Amino acid sequence: MCYRRFPIVLSIYVITKGDYVGTGATSFVDRLVSGHVIKYPKPNPYCPEKEDRCRLQMEVEAEAYKRISDNARVPRLVDWNAASCCLVLEYLAKGSLASYLQNHDQTTAQQRHAWMTQATEALAAVHAAEIIHCDVTPRNFMLNDALELHIADFAGSSVSGSRPTIDASPRYQRPGRGPLPQYADDLFALGSVLYYIQTGHEPYHDVNEDEAQDCFKAGAFPKTAALSCGSIIHSC
Whole-model pTM? Predict the structure, then answer.
């Protein structure tokens, strides 16, 4: 007699708190009737430890927003419910910088230059609050209706030396980085973001991530001399 083993699929049903916007590694994001967005941790009745990790990351994110407080380059914190780990933030209608540039390749040089300035201001505000973001990428910069840039998503960040729970993707990773996060890691990633703003694609977008990392480790970086603020990008 032959037996077959079939995988067991366990479903988790979630009651949304508004209109669905998106899902991240840690949380769901819905839009409320008020117009704001709410982030809440992913439930997991089959693995309480995983659910606890999601709640802890939401607590880290809330602490980051509290520390940065009212800053024009960070989404405004509207409310935080510690019991339910629900975070309410202002809604940034134009979505992520990554998706916007993918759909608007004719963005003007003036707008791109403004974004470079705003991205730098945003990261400066984060570092001034003793936070290392640890995942500085175009998808974590958000745009409002006026196309002003905001840095977001601090769930995996290091706050005042806490251990981060996320790592930047290879094209944003500083070569030679150590086991503990440093501000320099974010600055290197910022250079890749500025390059993305100027060109519309990631560094070494035409090779796989391992090859891109090998280039970084060898000290070989994309040419930036012909780009606006190319020397600043290179210095990151």
Answer: 0.90
Range of the domain at 45: 19-89
Q: How many CB atoms lie within 10 A of CB 49?
A: 7
The CATH number assigned to the domain holding 63 equals: 3.30.200.20
Does any domain span residue 14? no
Q: What secondary structure, in 3-state letters, does 101-152 show?
A: HHHCCCCCHHHHHHHHHHHHHHHHHHHHCCEECCCCCHHHEEECCCCCEEEC
The one-letter amino acid at 215: C
CATH code, 211: 1.10.510.10
The whole-number mean pLDDT for each consecutive block of 10 residues of the chain, a chain of 236 residues, reads 53 71 89 95 88 94 94 96 96 96 94 97 98 97 98 95 91 91 96 96 94 94 87 88
